[in-house]
Amino acid sequence: xxxxxxxxxxxxxxxxxxxxxxxxxxxxxxxxxxxxxxxxxxxxxxxxxxxxxxxxxxxxxxxxxxxxxxxxxxxxxxxxxxxxxxxxxxxxxxxxxxxxxxxxxxxxxxxxxxxxxxxxxxxxxxxxxxxxxxxxxxxxxxxxxxxxxxxxxxxxxxxxxxxxxxxxxxxxxxxxxxxxxxxxxxxxxxxxxxxxxxxxxxxxxxxxxxxxxxxxxxxxxxxxxxxxxxxxxxxxxxxxxxxxxxxxxxxxxxxxxxxxxxxxxxxxxxxxxxxxxxxxxxxxxxxxxxxxxxxxxxxxxxxxxxxxxxxxxxxxxxxxxxxxxxxxxxxxxxxxxxxxxxxxxxxxxxxxxxxxxxxxxxxxxxxxxxxxxxxxxxxxxxxxxxxxxxxxxxxxxxxxxxxxxxxxxxxxxxxxxxxxxxxxxxxxxxxxxxxxxxxxxxxxxxxxxxxxxxxxxxxxxxxxxxxxxxxxxxxxxxxxxxxxxxxxxxxxxxxxxxxxxxxxxxxxxxxxxxxxxxxxxxxxxxxxx
Length: 529
Description:
Layout: E1 2-3, E2 15-17, E3 34-38, H1 42-52, E4 57-62, E5 73-77, E6 83-87, H2 98-104, E7 114-116, E8 122-124, E9 129-130, H3 141-149, H4 155-160, H5 163-170, H6 176-181, H7 186-192, H8 197-209, H9 220-232, E10 241-243, H10 247-260, E11 270-275, E12 279-285, E13 288-293, E14 298-301, E15 303-306, H11 310-318, H12 326-334, E16 340-348, E17 359-363, E18 370-373, H13 379-388, E19 391-401, H14 407-424, E20 433-441, H15 451-454, E21 465-467, H16 480-498, E22 506-508, H17 516-528
Parallel strand pairs: 3-4, 3-15, 4-11, 8-17, 15-21
Antiparallel strand pairs: 1-2, 2-22, 5-6, 7-10, 8-9, 12-13, 13-14, 16-19, 16-20, 17-18, 18-19
Helix pairs in contact: 1-16, 2-16, 5-17, 7-9, 11-12
């Protein structure tokens, strides 16, 4: 490992994992490996990019009619016939998402299709408000400044914290943090370190629920790793980028054009997309595989990347009895999903007040977790709001049910979300709802205590079969979309190694706590136990 300077990011202590050397163009031999990537989310697209850039013939099969998976975008039609952009809701593109940004830079070298937000305020039900505007970037001063200016955290709270119990937060290393904390839930861990209750609800609860799970059901190791990625391990900061338009327009259509266009020296491989097709079964056949899809067609591949969501992976492996061994199949079968969540998007006939932030995280305001005003940053929403003198508002409710509820409960949740919106943004109470849609999903991976040890990794018992996705184990300090992108690049590298091809570099925040003083204190506290 060595430090490096990827195309984006200010942190000089970010870490580079050099790729394995090898051939740069497998197509020169006349018969390049044929690889099927199942799933066109971030992980699948990263894998396809890595493979095509080394000359592989890549076929990407996606069950939906659009690219991007859980960060995909599509069109819907309002009651008046207006076509509007739609997606699964707000996503934050942090500067420390190096491997995701590397993927996006293939079709947008300067990342002009992303826009940096000025702030990311958090507010709780009692009116306490935190902000990330103007924080120092260098750890640990960023976390200290955030804590000391927070209305829910005082200097006396810092003094009262249990330093011994809190030591893992200051000395996170990946993957060792899982051996230390994965047996605990995040709520218990925060209580054990005497973290103030109000600050827990406003700061940590907001972040934990971005993993689509409540703190009492989330692994303390995941919480500590998150604290490392965004606070103590990185100087990139917590103010992030958003896409300037619906995800299909801003992100994936340009990338698809890059991947499926004429071959170039930088990308000699061929990528073919098959959308609206679901792979039903994968069977081993000699050194390769035969895949059957829902159209009744079959195809052969030299290698396969399974980049589906957890439910899709479980289904496909269960239907493919020749894949893997008993232990691996049991790991896949045991992989679990997080609780269901809802995204409620509203097209209103009047604007929201100008001083409202683009994005507001909420704590202690169940069932509401955040409010986004899409017309402030998403071009299609901006155009609609300009033409109608209205606004486009989105409400998120994470981890609201163990499974998607029946229609009556959904209607009740809708009303509760609207009540929260009206209380926080009173001007919306008198607005007419021109159009609305409520999307329910339960397809995000679960990160509960004990899950890490049994989570399947990128490699499988078959050298030409690999996994990718944000629910796949990777022993690096990455999370959420960055975990998906990272596993996608690793999947490509794993396949390429079988044919002696060069891999692709990876980058992460430091793999351990960057402050020698804090590491020393944490080590001392650990030895005293």
